[in-house]
Design a protein that fits this description.
The longest helix is centred in the middle third of the chain and has 8 residues, at about 75-80. A hairpin with a 4-residue loop joins strand 7 and strand 8 (about 105-115). The protein has an eight-stranded antiparallel β-barrel with strand order 1-4-5-7-8-9-10-11. The mean pLDDT is about 90. It is elongated and about 50 Å long. It has a single domain (about 5-180), classed as Lipocalin (Beta Barrel), CATH 2.40.128. With about 180 residues, it is mainly beta. The protein has one helix at about 75-80; strands at about 15-20, 25-30, 35-40, 45-50, 60-65, 70, 90-100, 105-115, 120-135, 140-150, 165-180.
Amino acid sequence: MTTQTDVIDGYVAGTWTIDAVHSDVSFYVRHLGVSKVRGSFASFEGTITTAENPLDSKVEAVIHTNSVSTNNEMRDNHVRSADFLDIENFPELTFTSTAVRPKTSELFEVDGELSLHGVTKTVTLQLELNGFGTHYEGHAIAGFSAATEISRSEFGVTGGAAGAAVSDKIRIALEIEATQAKA
């Protein structure tokens, strides 16, 4: 009988810690319908558990909303304000996976609960398993890419007066490198 791990080259079960130095949590949103404003979060952490059966794997992540950057201080301060992220009241954005479904041997859909701005909604990440390897210092590493799109209004993020200039849809892109926890 063939299992999912038989078709994933080099698959390693274990617990992994997201390496924020070698990872990226980014987003983009359309401005005035004609351009895309990009941003990222500099402070985040999480744990990925790759189970013996990959479909039983889990992810838990926390993003610190005060670490948002769009490379413009005035805009960053506005995004941190009550109009958007409201970092005073909602200092964290969290994701906890609830299910994993295969698309191919390297592509998966990961359902989970995303909590943003005091609202929790189910979202689906399109996940690509980039592979497993060994860091030059000798520890095991794993790589993942994921993306999803959310509606900011569904999370109660209005944007205040500027909200009309910014698309409701926000595209989120994750490039994650993780280090296997020592046994």
